[in-house]
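Page 42, continued from yesterday. The earlier attempt failed because a stray header line got pasted into the input along with the sequence. Redoing it now with the clean sequence only.
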Amino acid sequence: MKKLSILEMNRLTEEDFRQSAKIPLVVVLDNVRSQHNVGAVFRTADAFRLERIILCGICCRPPHPEIHKTALGAELSVDWTYEADTLQAVETLKQEGYVVYAVEQVHGSISLDRLQLDPALRYAVVLGHEVKGVQQSVVDACDACVEIPQFGTKHSLNVSVASGIVQWAFFEQLKSNIE
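This time it went through. Structure tokens are written below.
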């Protein structure tokens, strides 16, 4: 087997990406402190052609060399906005008709492998601070919570890893919007 060259991958240009159809998913980062995590979320959002990212609170914002280090330019292709208050961002998304999920371990959370999405709806997922998770007030404002099933001794995943898993799960159910 021979690895594909960059040209053989037929990737979109930044301009083509901006004009392309997106899956109806917004990622909201609630006070994510690591610039590398923010960059990784951008890179994954580019891979799955997400609508946009909302950076909230203490999240670092592009342009920033540490974001670029892991985003590899995805911070230039993926639309993003900044909102000082995550709760306000969630309330605005809900007013715009998004179904908003916090990615958090709570009583009554939906296991990600059992989540059923309607491709006709628009969604947002909130991922939280590396230590504290999603703020309780934000969890309370969300429509529901999804939890990534885990079977080891640890009870959490790195936020960029969790974001990748969640983005993939949503993409699998919403990709008909871009095919």
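Notes: The first strand starts at residue 23 and ends at 30.
Reminder to self: strip header lines before submitting.
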